[in-house]
Write a structure and sequence with these properties.
The structure is a homodimer of 196-residue chains.
Chain A: H1 9-29, H2 35-42, H3 46-52, H4 56-83, H5 88-105, H6 107-126, H7 132-149, H8 159-168, H9 176-190
Helix pairs in contact in A: 1-2, 1-4, 4-5, 4-6, 4-7, 5-6, 5-7, 5-9, 6-7, 6-8
Chain A binds a DNA duplex (30 and 30 nucleotides) through helix 1 and helix 3.
Chain lengths: 196, 196
DNA sequence: ATCGAAGGTGAATAAGCCTTCATCTTAGCC
DNA sequence: GGCTAAGATGAAGGCTTATTCACCTTCGAT
């Protein structure tokens, strides 16, 4: 009995294991995790990785895509809070804090944020509308617009600026309290200048 | 006729060329510049690099040390301005702007800032007092102390925090105006909270 | 139970680097 | 001019990784 698109069950199981191992290793080691390492953790041979993903790049992309989906739900959650009546500036701040939190435990997530940074200009409307990256960009964009409308963040801020700021937040290489202060400072700096 | 410590003139000339080439390549490519590349730009063979520097690490360290010296004069300049009567908070802001400016044109300089980040805790008093890294740390530390005394920056900020912030400033991969806004935001965020 | 094809294996290949070293050059002294 | 040790050379060695592929294994329909 075949599954899905006529793919054997063991193949699907292996694919899942590979993705799981890749997620774990990329999370702690970053994108320099080796194919050998990933294969070993997945309990398969390297060749199997290549049956499922044409190149390392594609495997990493799959992992990053996964993180991007998490990013999308984080950003959409923040936007939902605003729709429910929360001040957009505060929600944006919360979003920063949540993102920073994940950075500390998941380097793959940070990589994903880097992609956001790179692609925000090009992909916001070009990409398929349902893409995780497009959803993230859309939600942040709307959050930003509302916060600016409410006068809670500086009017000159762009979506790309936010992506850069998000990508600049340090990960686990910086101690927790220092990281928290970093985020505090950025959030405070987002407010409009006192004397415009 | 020998120069300096009994070193042949051609050897000294080559050493200078190597350092110059390494500076240029590390500035634009980052620390991943290859030894082959550096040798070619210097007009020597790779073996010559190894006569002057035991390992790539040492060559890179020499380049970084050079950038660290620039960092030291920048920080000491900012401190001097304060001694001359400038508000310490403003000087600190200026320092950030100047550093960001150099990042854009010199990746080696940014690497150097990363080392500052790592070493700030350990080396501030441990290193030989005259070291560029120690001078930088000392000047920033004093700048911070004065700014806090004047109530111009948040009291909970530490030297390590500033190092992290400095290291987080983006380089040339981010357009000039976005970079400027980044720095603006950080500087604004350095101010004490309105309601402590 | 059998069989064909999808799937898995892992040694071998390839490419990119850093580093070494036997050998050749040359600066600087007589 | 000749000598010699410091200096320069760059092919070769060695290491790390991604990627391939000829050859087994196993699933799953019959």
């Amino acid at each position: 009995m075949l599954h899905d698109g006529g793919v054997r069950v063991d193949a699907q199981r292996n694919r899942a294991r590979i993705l799981e191992a890749a997620r774990a290793l990329v999370a702690e080691t970053g994108v320099d995790a080796t194919m050998e390492d990933i294969a070993r953790h997945a309990g398969v041979a390297v060749g199997t990785l290549y049956r499922h993903f044409p190149a390392k790049e594609d495997l990493v992309a799959a992992v990053v895509e996964d993180s991007l989906a998490q990013m999308a739900s984080l950003t959409e959650g923040a936007l939902a809070a605003v729709h429910a009546g929360a001040p957009p500036g505060v929600s944006l701040g919360e979003l920063f804090r949540e993102v920073a939190e994940r950075y500390a435990s998941d380097r793959a997530f940070k990589s994903a944020a880097g992609h956001l940074d790179v692609d925000v200009d090009s992909e916001i409307e070009a990409a398929a509308p349902g893409t995780a990256i497009a959803r993230s960009a859309l939600a942040i964009s709307e959050l930003l617009r509302r916060a600016q409308l409410a006068g809670e963040v500086r009017a000159d801020l762009t979506l790309a600026d936010l992506a850069v700021l998000l990508a600049a937040v340090p990960g686990a290489e910086v101690p927790r309290d220092s990281r928290a202060r970093f985020v505090d400072i950025v959030i405070a700096g987002l407010a409009p200048a006192l004397h415009p």
